[in-house]
Design brief:
Blueprint: H1 3-28, E1 36-38, E2 44-46, H2 50-67, E3 71-79, E4 83-85, E5 88-90, E6 98-107, E7 113-117, H3 118-121, E8 126-130, E9 136-138, E10 140-145, E11 150-154, E12 176-181, E13 189-200, E14 214-217, E15 229-231, E16 237-244, E17 255-259, H4 260-273, E18 283-287, H5 290-295, E19 302-307, H6 312-317, E20 323-327, E21 330-331, H7 335-343, E22 350-357, E23 360-367, E24 383-385, E25 390-394, H8 397-403, E26 409-412, H9 418-421, E27 429-433, H10 441-450, E28 453-461, E29 464-472
Antiparallel strand pairs: 1-2, 3-6, 3-8, 4-5, 6-7, 7-11, 8-9, 10-11, 12-13, 12-15, 13-14, 14-17, 15-16, 16-17, 18-19, 19-20, 20-21, 20-22, 22-23, 24-25, 25-26, 26-27, 27-28, 28-29
Length: 473
């Protein structure tokens, strides 16, 4: 190669080196540099810097380290009950013995209280809690609330690491969150995502008075995550992971958590009263579209579809067709947000409502009532039968009015016993047994424990009448 050509090639290489070094220093240096792009309205957008990424990574690490010791692994065991066939326990599929399942829970106090989902421990004969340290403890069920799908457990242990709560009302759509739990028995698993939406109602709580106002996240949640923690980048509890929306049974991008404010109230009520103190406004509400809202003179809200008559104050002050736009100063834009606001209140509390009627706005204050129609706080009164394997309690006035029956006795916390042999589920209401009604829990328990021969039951399951027949020997 000629000398002149060599000099030209070397010059080109040297110039390319200078250009490359300049470009690296300008665009890819580890120093704090940004690329600024002008939007259509001349608002500058800033790309995430290396320092921003480092701070985010630090937040993930800090949150994981802080929250993981507060999340536990829950193992339950229940007895599978095959169908009776000519007095013998027989199952054509060959399923016998014990059934095990797993989930997650969150430590909420130093002295051993743990919150989880009600469906995680439902029908369990035995509940075990495994701490992050691998220590295992037998757990006692303090109480459960099917309407919110929450349950409170207790283990005998001190010096635990309780999680810190954050105000779920202040959680923002788009903020980073971590899901901490035990999917597929993979203990202490952490996944990251953002808050995708708030106030979601996905119709999964199978209860007469469900509370559904879920926080939606795209942090990966799978079977086993139920009852685990959804936390912010400070490691504080945003919600309790409860469900996924999936056609396959595995995560596809939609996870749902119960807001921490609902969790906090439920825990307090179960500890102090044995059941959640639900305050009832005495109305049914429905979502409505923007056109109807505008016709009513409002900008948002839910419409009163029916005044139930369970709350005298509501019956005298509200009408079907009213639009409720605020509860205690909080804007209401859906039935789920309305239900959530009311769920924070107890019997005797006053709900301050902003209402639109005939294009006029006015304020109404209504005291909430309990399920018996009074403003008092009530404690759970139930009787447990070891032979039958369940708790029995008289149904409330609200339930009697709803189902239009004079009396009834409801069962809950079903374990191994006669109830399981009868395939009765949580919340089943005995209306009549052998055509006899019962106003006393002890009388029904005595009959079911001691009756021999054919028994006919008229009852209600999930709001639907049922007629059952069994033989006891």
């Amino acid at each position: 190669m000629k000398k002149r050509h060599i000099i030209i090639l070397a010059s080109i290489c040297l110039m390319a080196s200078f250009i490359g070094a300049f470009a690296y220093k300008t665009f890819f240096s580890e120093s704090e540099r940004f690329v600024v792009i002008e939007s259509k309205d001349n608002t500058p957008y800033r790309n995430i810097s290396h320092q921003d990424m480092a701070n985010l990574e630090t937040g993930f690490i800090t949150s994981s380290e802080k929250s993981t010791p507060s999340v536990v692994f829950i193992k339950t065991e229940s007895q599978y009950q095959p169908q009776s066939f000519w007095r013998f326990d027989f199952d054509p599929f060959g399923r016998i013995g014990k059934v095990a399942s797993t989930g997650s829970g969150v430590i909420v106090s130093q002295d051993g209280y743990i919150v989880t989902n009600q469906h995680v421990i439902k029908n369990a004969d035995k509940i075990e809690v495994v701490l992050n340290s691998k220590k295992t403890f037998a757990a006692t069920l303090i109480g459960s609330d099917p309407s919110s799908d929450l349950a409170l457990l207790k283990i005998i242990e001190d010096n635990l690491t309780p999680i810190q709560f954050t105000n779920s009302d202040q959680v923002k759509i788009g903020q980073w969150v971590l899901a901490v739990g035990n999917p597929f028995n993979l203990t202490s698993t952490v996944t990251a995502g953002i808050v995708s939406a708030k106030g979601r109602n996905i119709n999964i709580v199978n209860n007469q008075f469900p509370i559904e106002s879920f926080i939606q996240t795209d942090a990966a949640i799978n079977p086993g995550n139920s009852g685990g923690a959804l936390v912010d980048l400070n490691g504080n509890l945003v919600g309790v992971n409860t469900a996924i929306a999936s056609k396959t049974g595995s995560y596809v991008g939609y996870g749902f958590a119960i807001p921490s404010n609902i969790v906090a109230k439920t825990i307090e009520d179960l500890k102090n009263y044995g059941e959640v103190q639900r305050g009832f406004l005495g109305v049914d509400v429905t979502d409505i579209d923007g056109e109807i809202i505008e016709k009513m003179g409002a900008n948002n809200g839910v419409m009163v579809s029916r005044v139930t008559g369970t709350n005298e104050a509501a019956s005298s002050k509200l009408e079907a067709g009213d639009v409720i736009t605020k509860v205690d100063g909080t804007v209401i834009d859906s039935k789920s947000s309305f239900d959530e606001r009311i769920a924070y209140l107890r019997p005797g509390d006053i709900a301050k409502l902003e209402v639109f009627r005939d294009n006029k706005r006015f304020d109404i204050n209504i005291s909430l009532v309990n399920k018996e129609g009074t403003t008092e706080l009530i404690k759970k009164e139930s009787k447990y039968s070891e032979v039958l394997g369940g708790e029995f309690e008289l149904i409330s006035k609200l339930e009697r009015d709803t189902y239009k029956i004079p009396s009834g006795i409801k069962v809950s916390n079903i374990t191994n016993g006669k109830l399981r042999k009868m395939n009765l589920s949580e919340g089943f209401i005995f209306v009549k047994v052998n055509n006899q009604t019962f106003d006393d829990v002890d009388d029904l328990i005595y009959m079911l424990e001691n009756h021999k021969g054919q028994i006919r039951i008229e009852g209600i399951k999930n709001g639907v009448s049922q007629y059952l027949s069994y033989s006891f020997y």
